[in-house]
TrEMBL record:
<protein>
    <recommendedName>
        <fullName>ATPase BadF/BadG/BcrA/BcrD type domain-containing protein</fullName>
    </recommendedName>
</protein>
<dbReference type="InterPro" id="IPR002731">
    <property type="entry name" value="ATPase_BadF"/>
</dbReference>
<feature type="domain" description="ATPase BadF/BadG/BcrA/BcrD type">
    <location>
        <begin position="16"/>
        <end position="305"/>
    </location>
</feature>
<dbReference type="InterPro" id="IPR052519">
    <property type="entry name" value="Euk-type_GlcNAc_Kinase"/>
</dbReference>
<dbReference type="Pfam" id="PF01869">
    <property type="entry name" value="BcrAD_BadFG"/>
</dbReference>
<dbReference type="InterPro" id="IPR043129">
    <property type="entry name" value="ATPase_NBD"/>
</dbReference>
Length: 325
């Protein structure tokens, strides 16, 4: 991937994070010393080209940029640089097609499209870095000092997504169904889930599951409740949460092996709904990583667009990244 021309103080830049649900844009003014002043934010619909197609993805990205430009009363022609972190662009052909379309739309004088996992990595250093997403699904990315990348997880809820919100919710539902079918009298975590969904029997629970139009999202939403119950020392919930953390730690360990990273002190940047609570699950994950022989420095990235902007302003472009097969 080519390195874009130098980013200089006084320039206006645009950073975009796009996924399967929404597209967020942030416009900033570059200051001295790598600092920036955020001028405006904008949002539009989904822009994962794998899900909506390249043309629709480009339209959503353009809409998000326009929304931000209008909010900040900025002319789009003023954008010197643009970094577009978009889900579904690991394939070079897809990424190239989207880049070509965004260039035609003149969203920035110099623009680069990267996969949405890249901003999880530390762009300020060439040291080994890891990124971990644990939301509805789960996936991890790692980079070694040679610029090699590897991905672990991201298989989807049918084959994988261990450690995700869906996996936690599924385990909670399995426990609830087993208790209903065995005793007919749920208690503890099972009782909480039954009350939340307004069911009293296994049949009612299965009927409720069959009624959802987005089953994956509904199941994943149970993760918040299960984590809360784990905080209250419900031992079933504790076991489910511990298993999820161990599964996520295993993804990071797989990347260490794949990338031949021997040092145990590692930086891991995390994102996703499981890390949006009061830090409880983050602490559980940290302990799981330590049990796996690592000394993790964890950082929660609550705003993906901020991370994209950080990568852009730093002048870092992953032109030497090589994704291992």
């Amino acid at each position: 991937m080519p390195r874009s021309p130098s980013i200089l103080p006084g320039q206006i830049v645009v950073a975009v994070d796009g996924g399967g649900t929404k597209t967020a844009c942030r416009i900033a003014y570059v200051l001295e010393g790598g600092q920036r002043e955020v001028l405006a934010n904008g949002q539009a619909g989904p822009s994962n080209p794998r899900a909506v197609g390249v043309e629709q993805a480009a339209k959503a990205i353009q809409a998000a940029v326009r929304a931000a430009a209008q909010a900040g009363r900025i002319e789009a022609s003023e954008f010197e640089h643009g970094l577009f972190s978009i889900a579904g662009t690991f394939d070079a052909k897809v990424r190239g097609a989207l880049t070509e379309r965004l260039t035609a739309l003149k969203l920035a004088t110099n623009l680069v499209v990267i996969p949405d996992l890249y901003p999880l990595l530390d762009s300020k250093s060439n040291r080994p870095s890891f990124g971990l997403i644990a939301g509805t699904g789960s996936v991890a990315i790692g980079r070694n000092m040679r610029g090699q990348l590897a991905i672990a997880g991201g298989w989807g809820h049918v084959l994988g997504d261990e450690g995700s919100g869906f996996a936690i919710g599924k385990d909670g539902l399995r426990h609830t169904l087993q208790m209903l079918e065995t005793t007919g009298a749920p208690h503890g975590l099972a009782a909480v889930i039954c009350e939340l969904w307004g069911v009293h029997t296994a049949y009612e629970l299965k009927t409720r599951l069959a009624s959802f139009t987005d089953l994956k999202a509904e199941v994943a939403q149970l993760a918040k409740v299960i984590v809360e119950q784990a905080q209250k020392s419900d031992m079933t919930a504790v076991g489910i949460v511990l298993k999820a953390a161990e599964d996520l730690a295993r993804l990071v360990q797989q990347l260490r092996v794949r990338l031949d990273i021997t040092e145990s002190a590692i930086g891991v940047r995390v994102s996703g709904g499981l890390f949006s609570n009061d830090g409880f699950f983050l602490d559980v994950l940290k302990q799981a990583l330590k049990r796996a022989g690592m000394q993790p420095n964890l950082q929660v990235l609550s705003d993906p667009t901020h991370s994209v902007l950080e990568m852009l302003i730093s002048g870092f472009q992953p032109k030497q990244y090589h994704l291992l097969p």
